[in-house]
Amino acid sequence: MASILNVDQINNAAGTSAVTIDSGGNMQIPGHVMQVVQATSTSVVSTTSTGFVATGFSASITPTSSSNKILVMGSLPIYLLNISGGAHGVITVYRGGVASGTDISSSPTAFGLAQSFSTGVSTISMAAFHAIDSPATTSSVTYEVALKATGTVTPNIAINQDQYSLTLMEIAQ
User: Fold this and answer.
1) Mapping DSSP to helix (H, G, I), strand (E, B) and coil, where does residue 111 land?
2) Backbone φ, ψ for residue 6 (5° rounding)
3) Among 11, 81, 141, 155, whose CB has the most other CB atoms within 10 angstroms?
4) pLDDT, tens digit, for every residue of 121-171?
5) CB atoms within 10 A of CB 126
């Protein structure tokens, strides 16, 4: 005959909580990955706007605990066309969408950057980025990539329909 042990929490030898089990049976072990969501795309996106514009590229995750954090990671091929010296293509990620959401990067120009210092030359860069967000909810959260130009340039994502990705990891706290 099998035995069943019903617990809400398992403490370590010092008596502090090490593992929590919620009513849905999810174990919360601080620092562990609870779930992973990944989105990929090959859609071409282009802008000449100097303000962040929505790319239509997003991923959603539903945290299991409002105290957990979300690790947001991605990589995008950025092509710069029609360059005037010193121009940049900049990416960032918004929680809740570009129109009404929150930019989760602390410094968008450093978050994902492709640049050129030569006039009349086109370049390509792979912009990789990551950030840790605290959405403080157990409702679905959408993260959307945004793009802008600085200077005279037309940044493009995936001009040759290259695949790019956005990965969300829920980290237990």
Assistant:
1) helix
2) -105, 120
3) 155
4) 677 778 888 899 999 999 999 999 999 888 777 888 888 888 999 999 999
5) 12
Distance CA 136, CA 42 (A): 31
- Is residue 120 domain-resident? yes
Specify the number of domains making up the chain.
1
Domain membership flag for residue 135: yes
Taking residue 69's Cβ as centre, other Cβ atoms within 10 Å add up to 17
In a domain, 2, yes or no: no
**What is the full DSSP assignment across 22-89?**
-TTS-EE-TTSEEEEEEEEE---EE---SS-EEEEEEEEE--SSTT-EEEEEEEEEEEEES--TT-EE
| CATH number of domain containing 160 | 2.60.120.1340
Residue entry with tokens 């950057």: 113
* Strands of the 9-11 sheet, one edge to the other: 9-11, 17-21, 27-28
* Containing structural domain, residue 47: 30-171
Neighbour-count burial of 134, counting CB atoms closer than 10 A to its CB (0-12 exposed, 13-18 middle, 19+ buried): middle
* Number of CB atoms found within 10 A of residue 112's CB: 25
